[in-house]
Amino acid sequence: FARDVRAGIDALKGMADSHEPEPLRPSLTRIRIPVRLLIGDAPHATHTPDEEIAILSAGLRDFAVEHVARAGQYIQEEQPAVIVATVRRLARR
Question: Could you read off the pLDDT tens digit of each residue along the chain, which spans 93 residues?
Fold first, then answer.
């Protein structure tokens, strides 16, 4: 990214515009590890629709939504310790 900022931006745009070749729903039952959806409690423009959360909840064996205080869309930047703590907690299981 540092050597060619334009190429880095193009790569990020390509990732944002990409589409998964196969639907996720049929694969959910094969996921055997715990899945946590961390959602910030601050309002923001992009959020996970309730319909998608319902699909995850129905298809995953061990799924939970956890709300993160004092965070919005970028939890990894706003509350990175919560991410680390969640991963460590799940790894101990």
Answer: 678 899 988 988 888 888 878 888 899 999 999 999 999 998 878 888 999 999 999 999 999 999 999 999 899 999 999 999 999 999 998
Q: How many CB atoms lie within 10 A of CB 16?
A: 7
Cβ neighbours for 43, distance < 8 A, ≥ 6 positions apart = 72
- What are the DSSP calls for 9-48, one per residue? HHHHHHHHH---SS-SGGGGGG--S-EEEEEESS--S---
**Cα separation, 46 vs 84, whole angstroms:** 23
**46: its two tokens:** 């992009």
Global pTM value: 0.74
